[in-house]
């Protein structure tokens, strides 16, 4: 692992790091904020998965998470959204290929060689982080935005022993039921929709996966709400499954980091209450 | 004036606006954050002047000012740092021409036609803002970063009746005494250094200008500190003049928005105490 940059910020260190990933076969870049802490202390961790077109940099620059992470003593990790490189398969559209990994392990050619973001986020990056940062891996939470909200929900649902807390900002709640999801999962996984269910929060809940609770914020002026995000499907799935979800429609807010940053401190406080209990 | 964009954020409206400036002869873009307020209320205003290479967008995206402005009920205005346009005189370097207006009215050809940021910031933009936003122009504060810290200090010192509060992040405190200043003021104003003194915070203080008090934060790991910023000259000028300045060296912090955002809420609270007194 190599350090790309470190900047002192909000009484801690905001770093950017790169390493050669075996999961994706490419260099991968991610950011980590570590609040100041006692020399031997291990801090709880909050993972943040980003949305379409983003890298680690969007939330690192615009997310306004550092003040709250410093206050609560939480390490904040922001991975990239796909493998990167000039010689990788890609698609001209913003919603498939680079910047659009959808947190799946692709099985379709030519994507299956590098687009293995599930293994990267679930296995490889946690092991790397545990080796290099003062993280208490017994206290992990996960959140994310849009495609990354989908990632947070599905990874959280599939790994209930790993994550004590799961939240999301304007998540894609059911790739089975929206154009972004149909394109991405169809392209990466192929036409058999039974294979998609492991990557669909509502289907995972329907198939028996559970969370102890859940916090979701969604802007009601989000232009993607009705066609792509479909928050109502998650409300129904949680209600049917008895998951005590707090799903808040925020009046006037859109899909941007102006929305995310507004509710970031709330989410960090919510995770802190569960990670430090 | 035309609205470029508005986004709801932190219980207010973050807008970006453009207008044709008579001062610069070009279109100019700026951002305004207006917290929610009572229908007839007029809110105090904090001006933020940006540094070299920046537009309004840097602080608007990375400045982390909205939560504190919403808390204190303060309107936050971020202008651009120079005129813009393909047919303007420019310089290849980052520290002269576009993105580097230095908040002066140029008198040297070819700069004197468009590079009139002093008139723009001191006269034209305040009049426009007063017409279009719910601002209480009797309660204005000013701050800024680096070249914009220089702008905030010099504009504040020259206009003591307009500004109740002046602060700065890592300001260029004396263009007369650093390479950035010598290049910019020499280029825009010509070789007669007597004319530069109206654009040099330390010289203005030496020549009799005063502030009721002053807050400055400066990172001690800032790579520009010793050659360009020279905070010590401001410390000495304030001491000699009896200005009760709070000039804080912040250990480990650099020149970036990771530094600015860390102390932004502090500055806004400091201005609020003076604007709402």
TrEMBL record, chains A, B:
A GO CC term assigned to this protein in UniProt? cytosol
Keywords attached to this Swiss-Prot or TrEMBL record, sorted alphabetically, are: Hydrolase, Serine esterase
Q: Which is a Pfam family this sequence falls into?
A: Esterase
**Which GO MF term does the entry hold, naming one?**
carboxylic ester hydrolase activity
Tell me the active site.
146 (charge relay system), 222 (charge relay system), 255 (charge relay system)
Entry superkingdom = Bacteria
Entry's EC annotation? 3.1.2.12
Q: What Gene Ontology biological process does one annotation of this record name? A: formaldehyde catabolic process
Q: Which PANTHER family does its entry note?
A: S-FORMYLGLUTATHIONE HYDROLASE
Question: What family is it from?
Answer: Belongs to the esterase D family.
Q: What does this protein do?
A: Serine hydrolase involved in the detoxification of formaldehyde.
- Name listed for the protein in its UniProt record: S-formylglutathione hydrolase
Q: What is the lineage of its organism?
A: Bacteria, Pseudomonadati, Pseudomonadota, Alphaproteobacteria, Sphingomonadales
């Amino acid at each position: 692992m190599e350090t790309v940059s470190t900047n002192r910020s909000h009484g801690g260190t905001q770093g950017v790091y790169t390493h050669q990933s075996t999961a994706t076969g490419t260099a991968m870049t991610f950011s980590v904020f570590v609040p100041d802490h006692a020399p031997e202390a291990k801090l709880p961790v909050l993972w943040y998965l980003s949305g379409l077109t983003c890298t680690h940099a969007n939330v690192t620059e615009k997310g306004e998470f550092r003040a709250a992470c410093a206050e609560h003593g939480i390490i904040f990790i922001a991975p990239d959204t796909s493998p990167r490189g000039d010689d990788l398969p890609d698609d001209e559209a913003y919603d498939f290929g680079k910047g659009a990994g959808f947190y799946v392990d692709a099985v379709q050619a030519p994507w299956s060689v590098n687009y293995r973001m599930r293994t990267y986020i679930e296995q490889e990056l946690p092991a790397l982080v545990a080796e290099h940062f003062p993280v208490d891996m017994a206290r992990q939470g996960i959140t994310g935005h849009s495609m990354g909200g989908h990632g947070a929900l599905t990874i959280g649902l599939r790994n209930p022993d790993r994550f004590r807390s799961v939240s999301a900002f304007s998540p894609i709640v059911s790739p089975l039921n929206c154009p972004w999801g149909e394109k991405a999962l169809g392209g990466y996984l192929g036409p058999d929709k039974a294979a998609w269910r492991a990557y669909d929060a509502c289907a995972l809940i329907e198939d028996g996966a559970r969370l102890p609770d859940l916090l979701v914020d969604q802007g009601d002026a989000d232009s993607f709400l009705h066609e792509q995000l479909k928050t109502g499907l998650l409300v129904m799935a949680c209600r049917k499954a008895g998951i005590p979800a707090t799903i808040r429609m925020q009046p006037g807010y859109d899909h941007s980091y102006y929305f995310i940053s507004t509710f970031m401190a709330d989410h960090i406080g919510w995770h802190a209450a569960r990670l430090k209990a």
